[in-house]
TrEMBL record, chain A:
Keywords: Ubl conjugation pathway. Essential component of the SCF (SKP1-CUL1-F-box protein) E3 ubiquitin ligase complexes, which mediate the ubiquitination and subsequent proteasomal degradation of target proteins. The lineage of its organism: Eukaryota, Fungi, Fungi incertae sedis, Mucoromycota, Mucoromycotina. Belongs to the SKP1 family. Residues 68-93, 123-164 are annotated as: Disordered. This is E3 ubiquitin ligase complex SCF subunit. GO terms for biological process: protein ubiquitination; ubiquitin-dependent protein catabolic process.
From TrEMBL, chain B:
GO terms for biological process: SCF-dependent proteasomal ubiquitin-dependent protein catabolic process. PANTHER family: PARTNER OF PAIRED, ISOFORM B-RELATED. This is F-box domain-containing protein. InterPro entries: F-box-like_dom_sf, F-box_dom, LRR_dom_sf. GO terms for cellular component: SCF ubiquitin ligase complex. Residues 7-59 form the F-box domain. It comes from Jimgerdemannia flammicorona. It comes from the Eukaryota.
């Protein structure tokens, strides 16, 4: 049986990280796992790379002593986001890396980290045109009929500013 | 450059943080700053996630100025509905109907209601969650008729969670009948100006609101009532408070004279420990506002430890006994307003340690003496507040003109 004071996480390539369980008290996935399968040796985090998991654990360690009430919903409007200088590393991160952290936070269900990374990604998108966003992320294309529909939608919005 | 693939659930998380739509900004500057609309035009996968958010809230300006836009929107959504994959109306979860407050008779509001009805008819029963209606005052020349809008909305209200309307009584029985369609799923209800201010000669006398139906709704956590008729008895509300119990977070009873009663406050204290906000009173003095006393308000402070906002207007029976108790025990209070209570002067209230979280304090009498640092309010009380309440950033003690602002 594993040490209840510590938890071992295994990444997609088999790399293991053993940290105090208390670091991960805001991770709903880890807390659920500790309750149901805590007697096992290690918890697998299959879709997360060692680099990203290390970064997530750093975030958890930095915030382990925080006394704020855990967030139930990352976008809870009653709890406005306030930038924390301890999280500056996430603000200078390349887009693709930031996305990896957002996904890891989502997988591990850490609302505070989801909020931090998703908020940062949103701030990079906000104010940019579709072309500028495409240049950032090179996503798949739009169908031709969608482009026609968008043009009309834009005209409707400009006249009456109807849809929120 | 390599393609970055965003899983839909991650895009959804990100899009939650894009700024909400601002009607005025978009009207003035066009759509280009509207981030969600831009996201819907990036790629197929982004579009699939963004479009439901873009169209989730509709603002329908029931004004002559909005006529052209409404007509075009109605045509656009009708065309889109022909293709099931692009039926944008099915994404709508919230409708807000904005109106001009006064009909100027030169408007074409009658023509505005028709496209609004067409748009509403494109929605499916049960898809709407939030409905906000701010109808105009009735027009004596009957330039428009909102009844078709109300009638169309009724079938869409089966899953509503939030409903807000102002001045419904003015529009007669058909409008009031809308309240009978409020479903059991409703958690937030705001009924403003429920008095018959603009009854037209052609209309029948004031109609009774279906308060029994409203107070029987089981899931209310936010209730705002203003200018309710006196026909509602405190026992009706008390019974509802027992039902709502721990769910109730916000209660506002403005100018509801029959409900300004100790029995309601004690019922809140006994049944609603999670109350976060209470607004009670009336802007104008009324004899009935003497029925809320220190004892009931102190019991409320004790029993509702989550109470953050408390506004009392013209509660004439409140005294420094309540103020002192509140100052010692209102530990979660962040906003306290006590207007026009002549027996509240702050005398002997110097222990304000309970207000460690207080950010806004307004204790004043608009008709009070404007002489001295805090008008008629006790000097020691004012100084204790300014010294001890470290988080206070807005303070008005004594009379309206005196405001202390702090930064940080």
């Amino acid at each position: 049986m594993s040490d209840p004071a510590n938890i071992t996480l295994v990444t997609m390539d088999g790399t293991t990280f053993t940290v105090p369980s208390a670091y991960l008290h805001r991770s709903k996935l880890v807390q659920d796992w500790l309750r149901s399968e805590g007697d096992k040796q290690a918890m697998e985090v299959k879709h997360v790379t060692p680099f990203v998991l290390q970064g997530v654990l750093n975030f958890c360690e930095i915030h382990a002593e925080d006394t704020s009430e855990p967030l139930a919903d990352p976008a809870d409007p009653t709890k406005p986001f306030e930038a924390d200088p301890r999280d500056d590393a996430f603000r200078g991160m390349p887009d693709d890396q930031l996305l990896q952290f957002t996904m890891a936070a989502d997988i591990l269900q850490i609302p505070e980290l989801v909020r931090l990374t998703a908020q940062e990604m949103a701030s990079r998108i906000d104010g940019k045109s579709p072309d500028q966003i495409r240049a950032m992320f090179n996503p798949d294309d739009l169908a031709e009929e969608d482009v026609d529909s968008d043009n009309e939608m834009g005209e409707v919005g400009e006249e009456g500013a109807i849809s929120k | 450059m390599s393609r970055i693939h965003f899983p839909p659930e991650i895009l959804n998380q990100i899009f939650q943080f894009l700024p909400s739509y601002d009607f005025q900004v978009v009207s003035f500057r066009g759509n280009h700053d509207y981030a969600l609309l831009a996201c819907s035009q990036v790629s197929r996968s982004w579009r699939a996630v963004a479009l439901p958010r873009v169209w989730s809230e509709l603002v329908l300006p029931c004004t002559s100025a909005g006529e052209r836009g409404l007509l075009r929107l109605a045509n656009f959504l009708t065309d889109a509905a022909l293709d099931r994959r692009h039926n944008l109306a099915h994404f709508v979860r919230s409708i807000e109907i904005l109106t001009e407050t006064v009909c100027e008779h030169e408007t074409t509001l009658k023509e505005v209601t028709a496209p609004i009805v067409r748009i509403i008819q494109l929605l499916r029963p049960g898809q709407l969650r939030t409905l906000t209606i701010d109808p105009p005052n009735p027009c004596p020349l009957i330039c428009y008729d909102l009844i078709p809008i109300f009638d169309t909305l009724k079938s869409l209200m089966t899953n509503l969670t939030t409903f807000q309307i102002s001045g419904i009584v003015d529009h007669g029985e058909e409008a009031i009948d809308l309240l009978n369609y409020l479903p059991v799923s409703l958690s937030s209800l705001t009924l403003r100006e429920c008095y018959n201010l603009h009854t037209l000669p052609s209309q029948s006398p004031p109609t009774t609101l279906p308060l029994h139906h409203i107070l029987a709704l089981p899931r209310i956590c936010h209730l705002e009532l203003s200018h309710l008729p006196s026909s509602i008895h405190p026992t009706h509300l008390i019974c509802a408070l027992r039902t709502w119990s721990t769910s109730l977070r916000h209660l506002s009873l403005i100018a509801c004279p029959s409900l300004h009663d100790d029995r309601v406050i004690y019922a809140l204290a006994q049944n609603c420990p999670n109350l976060v906000r209470l607004d009670v009173g009336h802007a104008f003095e009324s004899p009935s506002l003497r029925h809320i006393t220190d004892g009931a308000m102190c019991a409320l402070i004790d029993a509702c430890p989550a109470l953050e906002t408390l506004s009392c207007a013209n509660l004439r029976a409140l005294s420094d006994v309540f103020l002192g108790y509140c100052a010692r025990n209102g530990r979660m209070l962040r906003h306290l307003a006590v207007w026009n209570s002549p027996r509240i002067r702050g005398r002997g209230v110097t222990d304000v340690n309970g207000w460690s979280n207080l950010e806004v304090l307004e204790v004043f009498d608009p008709d009070g003496d404007m002489v001295g640092e805090f008008g008629e309010m006790d000097l020691d009380f004012g100084r204790a507040v300014l010294t001890e309440c470290r988080k206070l950033f807005f303070c008005r003690i004594g009379y309206e003109g005196e405001v202390v602002l702090r930064s940080g």
